[in-house]
Amino acid sequence: MADVTALTFLALCLPLAGALAAPFIIRIFGANGAWLLALAPLLAFLHFLRFVPAIARGEVVAGGYAWVPSYNLSFSWFLDGLSLAFALLITGIGTLIVLYAGGYLKGHKDQGRFFSFIFLFMGAMLGVVVSDSFLMLFIFWELTSITSFLLIGFDHERAAARRAALQALVVTGGGGLCLLAGLLLLWNISGVTQLSKLMVFGDAVRESPLYLAALILVLAGAFTKSAQFPFHFWLPNAMEAPTPVSAYLHSATMVKAGVYLLMRLNPVMGATPAWEILLPFFGGLTLVVGATLAIREADLKLKLAYTTVSSLGLLVMLIGFGSEHAVEAAALYLVAHCLFKGALFMVAGIIDHETGTRDVTRLGGLGRAMPLTWVIALAAALSMAGLPPFFGFLAKEEIYTALTGGDIRAITFTAITVFGNALMFAVAFAVALKPFLGRPVETEKHPHEAPVLLWLGPAVLATLGLLAAIFSSFTHAALSSPISAAIRQTPAEIDISLALHPGVPLALSALTVLLGIGVYWQLASVRAAMAIFLRAAGRGPDHGFDLAISGLVRFAARTMRILQPGRLQIYIACTFLSVAAILIIPPIVYGELPHLPAWPVDVRLYEWAVLLIAAVGLAAVLVAHDRLTAIVSLGIQGFAVAVIFLLFGAPDLSFTQFMVETLSVVILALVMTRLRLSPDDRRPLGRRLFDGTLALVCGLGFTLLLMRATQVPFNDALTVFFNAYSRTIAHGANVVNVIIVDFRGTDTLGEIAVVAVTGLAILALIRIRAGTERKLAANDPVEAEG
C-alpha cells in the first residue's frame, strides 16, 4: 500500500515535472521535444491503467497524507470507477495533445511556455478528479480556472484572446467560490471533509434544511465550469486559444469538471425533486441552445465548441433524470464524447494549419490533398452522429432507452434530445464532409497531408471510438460499468452492443438520422434562418457579461473616489470614527457600561506626582505652537505610563515602555525634521473642534472598556498555564519574554512587520521629498532655497 501511495503521488506530480522541464527540452530539441515531453502523461496513464482490473472488480484505491489532522484536513486521493476513468482520459488524451501541440506550434517562439501551461492545466484537472478531500478538490478546481486563463490568453497580444481569458476566469472562478461555500455547507451537515466518507451521508444531506442552499451553490460551481445556460457563453469564446488547448479543453478536461462533480455528488444530493427538476431543465435548455448556435456558425472550431455546450447539457440532463439507464447513458456518452470531440477538434486544427482558414464556406475539395485527415474526420463524425459501428451509436441508443416513457416529462425530454442530436448530426458531417468534398477552393496555403505529430492524435482517438464499440463487452467491463457503479453507488453491468435491437430507441435513432440529413441537406438555408432568429432574439448573455463588467468597473471607480479621495486626514478620521463606534455603541446597546468606581482615598504623594506629570504633558501638547514641541511633549505621557508600570511591580514592562517611547519621539522628530512640514498647525477652528471631539470620544471609549474589563472577575487560567509551561515547553524563566517570543510569536512577528512597513513608508516619503527638492533646485534655485 505504501508503494501504491508513493507511486500515485509521483504520477500526480508528473505533469508538474513536465511543466518545469518543458522550456528546456523545447529549447534543446525543438518540436521533436514533444516526443520526450509526452512521456510524462504517458507514464501517468500507464500507472492508472494498472488499477483497471481491481476497480472493475469493485475495489477502490485510496491514499494520501494527513496535513492538519486536528482539522481533519488531508492531501488525499480516491480512485473508483468514475475518478479512474477521468484520470485515464486526462492522461491518455493529454499524451496525444502534447504530441499534437508539438506539430501544431512547431517553430513558435513561445512553444516552451505553452507546454508549461498545458502541463499545469493537466495536473490541475487530474487533481480535481482524484481528490478525496474537499480542500484538495477546491484548490485544484480553482487551479483549472487559473491555468485555463493562461492557455486561453496564450496569444496575449490579441485583445480578443485577453477578453476571452478574462471572461473564462471571471465566470469559472466565481463559480468556484460558490462551490467552496457549498462544500462548507456539506461539511457542516455531515461533519466529514472527504468525498469518499460523504457518500454514506446521503439521507442526512437530503433531509437537512441546508440542502437547497448547498445544492444551489454546488450547481453554480458545476454549471459555470461546464458551461450550462446561461453561463455557456465563455466556452465558445475560449476558442481564441490555440487548437491543442481547444481539443484538450473540450474532450477531457476543464468543461468536464462540472459534469464530474455532479456525477460524484449524485449519490449524496440526487434523487430529490430539486435535483430532478433543475438538472434536466438547465441541461435540456443548454442542449437546445448549444445545438442551435452551432448550426449558425461557419467557423469549424466554433461549430464544434457549441456542440460541446450541447453535449454537456445532454450529460447534465441525463445525470438529473434519475433512472439507472440515464446514469448508464451518461457514462457511455462521456467516454464517446471525449473520443470523437478530441479527434474532431484536432482535425479542425489540421485544416486550419494546412489551409490557413477554418471557415467552412471557404473550404472544399480537401479530400484529394488530405485523404488521411478526411478518413479520420469521417470516423469521428460517424461516432458523433451516433451511427454504427462506433461507440457514439451505443451511447445514443442507451440515451433513448433511458428517456423513453409514456409520461409528459419523458416525452418532452425525448423530443428535446432528438432535436439536439439531429442538429449535432448535421454539424458533425458539416465538419467531416463540407471541407473535403466538392471542387478544390483556393486557400491561403497549399493544402497537403499533415505531418505525423498532427494526425497521430486524432487517428488514435477515432480508432478507439471504433474499437470501443466492436469490443464493447471489454469496454463496459473496464470503463462504462465501473463509471455507472460509482455514480449510482450500486453494482452496475452495462451490456449494450452493436447488435441492433428493434424498438423505440432504434426508431428514435432513425428519426434523428433522418432529421439530421434534412438539416445537413439544407444547411445553408438553416444557417441563415438561425442567424436571423438569433439576431431578433438579442445579443444574449455574452453582451450581458460585458455590460456587467463595465458596470462593475464604473461602480468601483465611483466607490473608490468616495472612499479613497487621497487625503490622509479623511482616512484617519474614518479610522477613529470606526474605533469610537466600536468602543461606545456595543456597551450602550447591550447594557455593558461599567460602574463608576469609588475615588481612592489612599493615593500616595508620588502617585499624585505621576498623574500631575501626565496632566502637564497633556497640557503641553495642547498649547504647543509647533509640531516638534508637541511631539516631544507627547513623550511625557508615555514616560508617565512607564513610571506607573514601575510602581506596580512590572520593571520589564516599564523598561520596554521607556525604550519604545524614547525611540518613538526621536524617530518622529527626525522624520518631521527631514520632511520639513509646516511647523505649526494650520487647521481651521471647525476642524480642530471636530478632531478634538473625536479624540475625546475615542479616549472615553478606551476608558470605559478598561474600566469594564477590570470590573469582571479575574480569570487566571492563562496565568496558570503560562506559569506552568513557560519553563517546561519554551525553556524560559522570564514568563513575559516567553509569551512574547514563543506563545505569541506569530503576533510579535506581525508587529515587527508593521514596524518594518512603516519604516519603509517613511523612507519612501523622505526620498520623495528629497527628489522633489532636487528638481526644484534645478529649475529655480532661489525658490528651492526659500
UniProtKB/TrEMBL annotation:
Q: Which GO terms describe its cellular component?
A: plasma membrane
Residue span(s) of domain NADH:quinone oxidoreductase/Mrp antiporter transmembrane = 131-414
Locate the MrpA C-terminal/MbhE domain: which residues? 687-767
**Location (main, coarse):** membrane
How this chain sits in the membrane, per its record, is: Multi-pass membrane protein
- Occurrences of domain NADH-Ubiquinone oxidoreductase (complex I) chain 5 N-terminal (ranges): 69-115
* Name of the molecule in the record: NADH dehydrogenase (Quinone)
Organism expressing this protein natively: Rhizobium leguminosarum bv. trifolii (strain WSM2304)
